[in-house]
């Protein structure tokens, strides 16, 4: 499982309270192209508190994709547009998957 970012020093009770208030776990997409090959990847999981913007977590992945994602044909432009769209709309919500993973480990 990917490492979870942005939960440092949070207790389980604090994490549960944030989830009840609308917190969520998200991943961001990025891609990069080398010559004609394009690689699409996802970030670590980030915990986003209720009311917190995802921009500060997604901006690096979005900029990387914007500058080096386009160059592989045909997948570079396709993956780049998809990744930038996903990141600018808050990332992909993986809250249920993360919670299920925690529950299966207990």
Shape: elongated
**Into how many domains do the coordinates divide?**
1
Mean pLDDT: 93
What proportion of the residues form beta strands (DSSP E)? 15-25%
Low-pLDDT residue intervals, each spanning 5 or more residues: none
Q: Level of helix content?
A: 40-55%
Radius of gyration, taken over Cα atoms and rounded to an integer in Å: 15 Å
Query: If strands are numbered along the chain, what order do they take across the biggest sheet?
Result: 1-5-2-6
Walk me through what this model shows:
The chain is of the alpha+beta class and 106 residues long. It has one domain (4-105). The chain is built from four helices and six strands; from the N terminus they run E-H-E-E-E-E-H-H-E-H. It has helices spanning 12-20, 55-68, 75-88, 95-105, and strands at 4-5, 24-27, 29-34, 37-42, 45-48, 92-93. Helix 2 runs antiparallel to helix 3. The two termini are 15 Å apart. The mean pLDDT is 93.
Descriptive terms for the model:
single chain; 106 residues; alpha+beta; four-stranded mixed sheet; two-stranded antiparallel ribbon; 6 strands
Give the structure's gist in a few sentences.
By secondary structure, this protein is an alpha+beta fold. The chain has helices at residues 12-20, 55-68, 75-88, 95-105, and strands at residues 4-5, 24-27, 29-34, 37-42, 45-48, 92-93. The protein is elongated and about 50 Å long.
